[in-house]
Design goal:
- The chain is of the alpha/beta class.
- Helices cover 37% and strands 14% of the residues.
- It is built from 7 helices and 8 strands, in the order βαβαββββαααααββ.
- It starts with 8 loop residues before the first strand and ends in an 8-residue tail after the last strand.
- The relative contact order is 0.15.
């Protein structure tokens, strides 16, 4: 209700988007399509470099648009997922604040003026959990690709539910299971990588130096 009547939707993820950001963005896009009859473009900065993340985009047929090619002035519904104003890794145009913010990270600068919906710093391990809860609490049907993206977002950001995972993450993950394509998730996790990937690992091991609790390796120039 807070954003009803909008006509043009952009959903921005943080720079160098990870699976949690991409999954949450897919979920918000589906909610806007279903409830507001809005088509949304998902916007990113930086690159999508990891083989797993590129495979996720390909298998789920998720199109994302570089922020440099977007006119933010033509947008009347702007959503920020898995990031907040002030974080620095999802820069906004001068004078522009998001209308909707969904993020599981701790609050950085507080709720900016003009934000219609603010779901930030909920103590969960993934933003995809927050978006999945919107589907389940409102009994919204889950398309297979969206459920798959959300499930993999939770799985990735919590390291298979082992790190920073809460009961809410586990409940959302289990609830998504019947709707998701687990074969696709397996393909994403086992994405093909080029031979140069293993050459870089070899160089990293050969150059590794241990300092107290840290292992450091200088790789030189790499492509991502």
């Amino acid at each position: 209700l807070a954003v009803r009547g909008r006509k043009t939707s952009l959903i921005q993820v943080h720079n160098n988007a990870d699976p949690d950001a991409l999954g949450a963005a897919m979920g918000m896009r589906e909610l806007y399509r279903r409830f507001l009859d809005l088509r949304s473009r998902i916007v990113f900065g930086g690159i999508v470099g990891r083989a797993e993340n590129r495979t996720m985009l390909r298998l789920l047929e998720l199109e994302i648009v570089p922020a440099s090619k977007v006119d933010f002035g033509c947008c009347d519904l702007f959503t920020l997922v898995d990031a907040q104003p002030g974080f620095g890794h999802a820069p906004l145009p001068d004078g522009r604040h998001p209308d909707v913010v969904v993020d599981h990270h701790p609050v950085r600068e507080g709720r900016p003026p003009g934000v219609a919906y603010w779901d930030v710093a909920h103590p969960v391990g993934a933003t995809s959990t927050l978006v999945a809860q919107l589907f389940f609490r409102n009994r919204v049907p889950l398309p297979r690709d969206v459920a798959t993206a959300l499930m993999y977002g939770i799985k990735s950001d919590t390291h298979d539910l082992s790190e920073h995972a809460t009961d809410e993450d586990r409940e959302a993950y289990q609830a998504l299971f019947p709707f998701a394509d687990t074969a696709t998730i397996a393909q994403i996790q086992n994405a093909r990588v080029p031979q140069s990937y293993f050459a870089i690992f070899s160089r990293a091991i050969e150059n590794a130096q241990v300092y107290d609790f840290a292992c450091v390796s200088h790789l030189g120039r790499i492509d991502n």
